[in-house]
Specification:
The radius of gyration is 16 Å and the shape is globular. The chain starts with a helix and ends with a strand. It is 15% helix and 45% strand. The protein is mostly beta strands. It has one domain (2-14, 29-193): Clam (outer membrane lipoprotein receptor (LolB), chain A).
């Protein structure tokens, strides 16, 4: 199944070679804006389209990303370059399915476990469904929190991951990330969002 990871391609997205974590000095921490967090957390019907790049040590993969959430249900598609096919991850808490371009379907309780087992790297979907919207996930403490002048998160750490939001799209309310990085140990994930669609506004 490691061949599936190779199908996603070894070429990284442009600019992925330089990761922003090492040696980066965070600005002073400001107060957490409860109104911004509440507005973003209330979004339970949304879709994003963009690009995903994953780097671990000196190896990497890239793909087009489509992510849809409706309540607790999600549908996440990774479209590999060069006709590498589509990997579809979908489900709800407690049961997740991964469909491969070859038509195989694998089922597990954890989305992260499925991705790691069959693509060779871990995508923390349970936490990332909040992080990709620019806020910490509920249920566990966030540390090293840093905010910008508008009270939006730019950096925080949670569940062993470092999350940096480098840019926001400001054409709608609430503001949602355009570019973010997730890092844990030697694994680094870059997400660049081209478009957000909000179904419950």
């Amino acid at each position: 199944m490691r061949a599936l990871a190779a199908a996603l391609g070894l070429a990284l997205l442009g600019g992925c070679a330089g990761w922003p974590f090492a040696g980066r000095e965070a600005p002073p921490v400001g107060p957490g804006p409860a109104d911004h967090r509440a507005a973003v957390a209330a979004l339970d019907d949304w879709r994003l389209a963009g690009k995903l790049a994953v780097q671990r040590d000196d190896e990497g993969v890239s793909a087009t990303l489509e992510w849809r959430e409706q309540g607790d249900r999600f549908d996440l598609r990774l479209v590999a370059p060069l006709n590498g096919g589509t990997f579809q991850l979908s489900g709800a808490p407690g049961r997740v399915a991964l469909a491969t371009p070859e038509g195989e379907v694998f089922v597990a309780a954890s989305a992260g476990d499925l991705v790691e087992q069959h693509l060779g790297w871990r995508l923390p979907v349970e936490g990332a469904r909040w992080w990709v919207r620019g806020i910490p996930a509920p249920g566990s403490a966030a540390t090293q929190e840093v905010f910008d002048a508008q009270g939006r998160w730019t950096d925080f750490a949670q569940d062993g991951w470092r999350i940096s939001i480098l840019d926001y799209l400001e054409d709608q309310q609430p503001h949602l990330p355009r570019k973010l990085f997730l890092a844990r140990d030697t694994l680094k994930v870059r997400v660049v969002v081209k478009r957000w669609e909000l179904g419950n506004l």
